[in-house]
Inverse folding.
């Protein structure tokens, strides 16, 4: 009974913003309700996305500056609770993805869940896989449901770049640890006396790939050069991302955002990194990584962002039993990995044909594309790689190219370049956006793809839930 | 961004009618085969590629075409700037054509070559249109001189990009303006360092030194192959630079920080310069013992330019270049260069099966050294020993060798770990069933070698090669215990394996050609210079060394102390003195070797009393490893105190020197002639296939003076007749140890007979 009651509340709360949205007229291409086949397979459980939310994504060092990561994750979880109205004990498991861990809350999933008021009987764990950490959280959830271990799982991601663990140097740490064991005053003084200025140099979290010692921006610049992507193309793409994000924001399409009353500060309800500029302004910037002839700049790269996201994933039966109308089916997904030196950011190129093949789809079947935009140069390089028979044959062992996604279906509500990219949280944003866009644009299949540090990548096919 | 093409793009075809000089060449058509150019907007991109070679060299043809192309480019008013690039991946210009210099008959002829080079580069330097050298791969010798004559240099960060002036290693000097431009560009100390050591400078270091202006990253997979696209990218950046120079957006003067400014100012004082010259001269003399003329000539040329101006400098450079090219030292070093190239090829063809898994028995110094050079080439390597302690030490040696490279930043810690993942340390024979080759480096004892051979043959697959690392035991004796002697071969590595370039491969008359091919292929993969010799006691290298060490012991018995003995040997050009060498080798090893070979060859290997070495071993004086040998070794890096207890031992074996054959020079020739005679005998007996391998083996394995080019080159240059004459004098005093072998006598009789043409 209680759940029935909650469901009616949920449906009411959802109606009003939707009504407003549908009232406006947009020029987005409507795919119409094509009667494509469903991707449901016999013997495989249908798994659905019930809903997804996120905190506003803010540039690091702004309004969220004094919080901790679990505060953001907690806010996303509370937002999901409010949005879906799910009883706090109806969830079987909670999984979060994150990249830079706050050492005090290394299992940030658990800390956030407790603070968000979920039952303390719900286990929670944290996963990490660079920029596809929350994708990993979601697919872990899918796996648990498919295996029959759970019926309802909350997956999410969080990243908090306003504060990162900066450590003492290894020498200092060693001295301090020895100090703990020193028994006599003399031994302690001797240890303290051994501290030299070199001990005091702090250790910042590495921005470089551990295996290659190359920063991601540097690798992106080399990638753009390898694919012959010009500075102008990159600036144009970045401008497109910001313009589309601005329009989506202005038109209220970013309905996954939940407002956040930041303690001691104002209510935050919008992403704050969306800044459509002009080609002239962007052309003035100097290259950020490869100097002086590089092409990747601050304006055509994603920026350091704070934010969290969360999605509710269930088996279809469970969702229906609880009275939900799911937003989408989560279908096939793949993870890929390549050379972290020269193909660091090419994950989408490898993952896209692979996941389409698994689903028995062609690129042309996809109505909605949401790709993670780490760098404009990275996106454009991937588009070129996917459009190259030579690349497909030489590096992917395929007979022909998969093709380049048409831009009129691609990241139409902005992307990581403009909305921001809290590493661990971006994956859930991509999946939720696909679900929302499928509904809005009337498409049937959506594709999420993303690259990640370590030369890894991910793609997932999402199918619209029948209206 | 990088503009790939701007406006019109005109490809100048290789075959074209020359209209500029039609008065001279009436209606002649000529084809450019080595150099061509393309006009991209207002920039001419000159591309070089020698169609007949993997590398570009400044051959006569290349120079001729370059001059023609340059003339045309300079004459075209639509062209505002020039980019010079090689279309070969991995090579800009590897240097001048050595054969071109070798073909010259006189000093004057070589001097003229140098002057022509100087002239071409002067024109480049004074070009009113800026020329940007775009460097990817080796930029050496004449290639570097070309690059530094250009107004601007852009280089890729490729591991293959190396800038350097290796002429000194061939007994030459940078003869096309290098001695004049380099000091001005990078300062005296750096210029001397480059020119006197000949070492390669990597791209990042070159940028720091001011040798190049800008660096370009290497690219990975894109829409073309990484190599091809990297060259294109380099060209794009270079074109932007060329335009930038014309538009004055790019400054040609380097930005200097305060330290560099102060340094430059200090260097401008002549007394500071003089101080540098004298320091460098002293250092050179100390290291070369005055045996190598090139380094002093390099200093002379730099000095002439700095003190008397460019005209005098360039003149000194070309004249000294001519003189050096005619010296026997240069000819010997060039010979070694060619020999080294020859010994980097597998004359036994491609083996049927590539070695993918190598098992090594014995984790001692040599075994672990072999493991290191093998894992570095991504070959699965099993290192087996019988005790955990020995294994631990061996594995640590491999780790340390690689970690030192990490410290020097030649590999990353990740690369180190990934290389190390190819190594498996173990105490049993598991996994040997997958081995393609087993190299045993166990104790030098025939019984032990037989034991492991049998154990190994019980577990390895039928096509697996069994190689024995031994310095003296005959391979056929080891193979006697084998069920498949055609698969048994000798692989004699030199310690320390990761530093010593030589690998001596020994084949018996039963060893199959494929087994040999397989051993050579592995050696080459490990980066070794490989010689293949016949079986016999001591093979080639040990056999040459033993008589010289026997003579050294006699010299000690005659009352010459180890320090004096060392200075006589190093004074002759050996990098390490005879006494130090014995200490490094191990006195016990030397005694063992002398005893074995003495038994095999009889009195010819006599001279010094073997008992002297045996007494030393009995007292625990086993050389460096035991802390005492001829010298005392303490923990300090500079040991070099004579072992005081040695005197007493020597005293008991004292011999009276014969004053007729005991001058310093006599002692030197006594040592060297026994070495050389034994080497020639090895050729006579067919242990050696050819003199080239004999020279390479002696120089790279035993430190035979490089400027002499090896024992065979030495006989050619010194004169077999003169050597025989000296040996006969010694023979009268000492007997058959100095009897010249027949082949040497043949050469002495007929002065036209030479080992090398």
């Amino acid at each position: 009974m209680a759940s029935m009651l909650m469901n009616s509340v949920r449906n009411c709360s959802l109606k009003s913003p939707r009504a407003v949205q549908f009232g406006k007229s947009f020029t987005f291409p409507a795919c119409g309700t094509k009667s494509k086949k469903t991707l449901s397979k016999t013997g495989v459980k249908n798994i659905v996305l019930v809903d997804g939310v996120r905190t506003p994504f803010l540039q690091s060092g702004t309004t969220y500056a004094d919080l901790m990561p679990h505060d953001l994750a907690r806010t996303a979880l509370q937002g999901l609770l409010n949005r879906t109205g799910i009883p706090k004990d109806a969830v079987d498991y909670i999984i979060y993805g994150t990249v830079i861990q706050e050492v005090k809350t290394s299992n940030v999933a658990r800390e956030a869940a407790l603070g968000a008021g979920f039952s303390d009987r719900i286990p929670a764990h944290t996963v990490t896989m660079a920029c596809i950490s929350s994708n990993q959280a979601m697919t872990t959830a899918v796996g648990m449901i498919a295996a029959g271990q759970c019926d309802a799982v909350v997956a999410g991601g969080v990243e908090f770049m306003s504060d990162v663990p900066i450590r003492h140097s290894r020498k200092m740490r060693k001295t301090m640890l020895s100090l703990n064991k020193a028994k006599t005053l003399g031994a302690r003084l001797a240890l303290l006396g051994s501290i030299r200025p070199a001990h005091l140099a702090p250790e910042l979290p590495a921005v470089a790939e551990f295996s290659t010692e190359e920063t991601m921006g540097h690798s992106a610049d080399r990638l753009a050069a390898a694919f012959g992507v010009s500075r102008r193309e990159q600036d144009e793409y970045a401008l497109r991302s910001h313009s589309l994000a601005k329009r989506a924001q202005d038109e209220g399409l970013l309905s996954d955002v939940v407002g956040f009353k930041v303690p001691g500060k104002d209510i935050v309800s919008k992403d704050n990194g969306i800044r459509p500029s002009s080609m002239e302004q962007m052309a003035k910037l100097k290259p950020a990584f490869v100097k002086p002839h590089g092409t990747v700049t601050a304006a055509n790269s994603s920026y350091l962002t704070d934010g969290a996201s969360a999605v509710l994933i269930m088996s279809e039966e469970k969702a229906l039993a609880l009275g939900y109308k799911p937003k989408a089916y989560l279908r096939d997904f793949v993870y890929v990995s390549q050379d972290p030196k020269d193909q660091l950011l090419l994950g989408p190129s490898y993952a896209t044909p692979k996941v389409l093949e698994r689903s028995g789809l062609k690129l042309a079947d996809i109505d909605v594309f949401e790709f993670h935009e780490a760098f404009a140069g990275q996106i454009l390089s991937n588009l070129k790689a996917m459009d190259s028979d030579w690349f497909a044959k030489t590096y992917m062992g395929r007979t022909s190219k998969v093709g380049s996604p048409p831009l009129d279906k691609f990241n139409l509500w902005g992307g990581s370049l403009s909305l921001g990219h809290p590493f661990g949280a971006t994956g859930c944003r991509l999946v939720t956006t696909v679900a929302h866009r499928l509904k809005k644009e009337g498409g049937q299949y959506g594709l999420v793809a993303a690259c990640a540090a370590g030369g890894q990548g991910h793609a997932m096919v999402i199918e619209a839930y029948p209206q | 961004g990088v503009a790939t093409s701007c406006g019109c793009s005109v490809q100048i075809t290789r075959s074209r009618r020359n209209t500029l000089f039609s008065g001279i060449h009436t209606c002649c058509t000529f084809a450019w085969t080595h150099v061509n150019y393309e006009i991209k907007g207002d920039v001419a991109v000159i591309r070089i590629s020698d169609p007949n070679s993997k590398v570009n060299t400044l051959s006569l043809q290349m120079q001729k075409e370059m001059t023609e192309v340059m003339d045309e480019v300079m004459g075209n008013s639509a062209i505002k700037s020039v980019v010079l690039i090689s279309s070969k991946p991995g090579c800009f210009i590897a240097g001048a054509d050595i054969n071109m210099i070798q073909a010259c008959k006189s000093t004057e002829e070589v001097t003229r070559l140098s002057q022509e080079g100087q002239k071409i580069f002067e024109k480049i330097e004074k070009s009113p249109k800026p020329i940007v050298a775009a460097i990817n791969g080796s930029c050496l010798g004449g290639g570097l001189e070309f690059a530094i004559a250009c107004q601007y240099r852009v280089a890729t960060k490729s591991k293959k990009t190396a800038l350097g002036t290796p002429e000194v290693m061939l007994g030459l000097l940078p003869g096309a303006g290098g001695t004049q431009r380099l000091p001005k560009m990078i300062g005296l100390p750096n210029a001397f360092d480059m020119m006197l050591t000949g070492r390669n400078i990597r791209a990042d270091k070159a940028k720091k030194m001011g040798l190049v202006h800008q660096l370009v990253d290497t690219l990975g997979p894109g829409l073309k192959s990484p190599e091809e696209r990297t060259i294109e990218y380099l060209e794009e950046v270079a074109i932007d630079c060329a335009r930038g120079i014309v538009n004055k957006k790019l400054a040609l003067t380097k930005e200097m920080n305060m330290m560099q400014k102060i340094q430059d100012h200090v260097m401008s004082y002549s007394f500071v310069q003089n101080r540098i010259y004298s320091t460098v001269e002293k250092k050179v003399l100390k290291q070369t013992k005055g045996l190598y003329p090139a380094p002093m000539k390099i200093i002379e040329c730099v000095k002439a330019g700095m003190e008397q101006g460019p005209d005098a400098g360039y003149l000194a450079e070309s004249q000294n270049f001519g003189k050096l090219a005619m010296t026997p030292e240069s000819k010997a070093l060039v010979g070694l260069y060619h020999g080294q190239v020859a010994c980097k090829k597998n004359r036994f063809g491609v083996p049927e099966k590539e070695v993918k898994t190598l098992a090594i028995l014995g984790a001692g110094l040599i075994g672990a050294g072999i493991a290191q050079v093998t894992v570095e080439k991504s070959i699965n390597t099993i290192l087996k020993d019988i005790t955990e302690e020995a294994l631990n030490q061996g594995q640590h040696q491999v780790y340390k060798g690689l970690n030192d490279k990490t410290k020097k930043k030649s590999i990353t810690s990740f690369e180190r770990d990934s290389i190390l993942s190819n190594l498996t340390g173990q105490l049993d024979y598991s996994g040997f069933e997958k081995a393609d080759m087993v190299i045993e480096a166990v104790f030098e004892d025939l019984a032990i070698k037989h034991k492991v051979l049998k154990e190994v043959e019980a577990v390895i697959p039928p096509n697996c090669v069994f190689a024995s690392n031994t310095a003296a035991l005959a391979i056929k004796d080891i193979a006697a215990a084998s069920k498949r002697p055609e698969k048994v071969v000798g692989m004699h590595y030199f310690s320390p394996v990761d530093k010593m370039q030589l690998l001596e491969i020994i084949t018996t008359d039963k060893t199959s050609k494929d087994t040999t091919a397989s051993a050579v292929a592995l050696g080459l993969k490990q980066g070794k210079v490989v010689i293949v010799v016949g079986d016999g006691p001591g093979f080639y290298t040990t056999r040459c060394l033993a008589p010289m060490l026997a003579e050294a012991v006699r010299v000690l018995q005659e009352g010459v102390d180890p320090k004096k003995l060392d200075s006589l040997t190093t004074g002759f050009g050996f990098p390490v003195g005879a006494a130090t060498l014995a200490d490094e080798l191990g006195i016990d090893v030397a005694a063992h070797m002398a005893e074995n070979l003495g038994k095999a060859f009889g009195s010819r290997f006599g001279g010094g009393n073997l008992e002297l070495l045996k007494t030393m071993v009995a007292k625990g004086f086993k050389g460096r490893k035991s802390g005492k040998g001829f010298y005392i070794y303490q923990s300090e890096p500079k040991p070099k105190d004579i072992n005081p207890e040695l005197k007493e031992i020597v005293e008991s074996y004292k011999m009276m020197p014969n004053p007729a054959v005991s001058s310093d020079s006599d002692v030197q020739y006594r040592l060297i002639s026994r070495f050389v005679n034994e080497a020639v005998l090895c050729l006579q007996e067919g242990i050696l296939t050819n003199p080239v391998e004999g020279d390479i083996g002696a120089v790279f394995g035993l430190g035979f003076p490089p400027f002499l080019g090896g024992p065979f080159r030495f006989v050619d240059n010194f004169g077999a007749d003169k050597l025989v004459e000296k040996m006969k004098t010694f023979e009268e005093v000492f007997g058959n140890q100095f009897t010249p072998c027949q082949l040497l006598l043949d050469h002495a009789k007929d002065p036209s007979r030479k080992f090398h043409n």
Observations:
- Confidence is low (pLDDT under 50) at residues 1-29 of chain B.
- The longest strand of chain B covers residues 35-40.
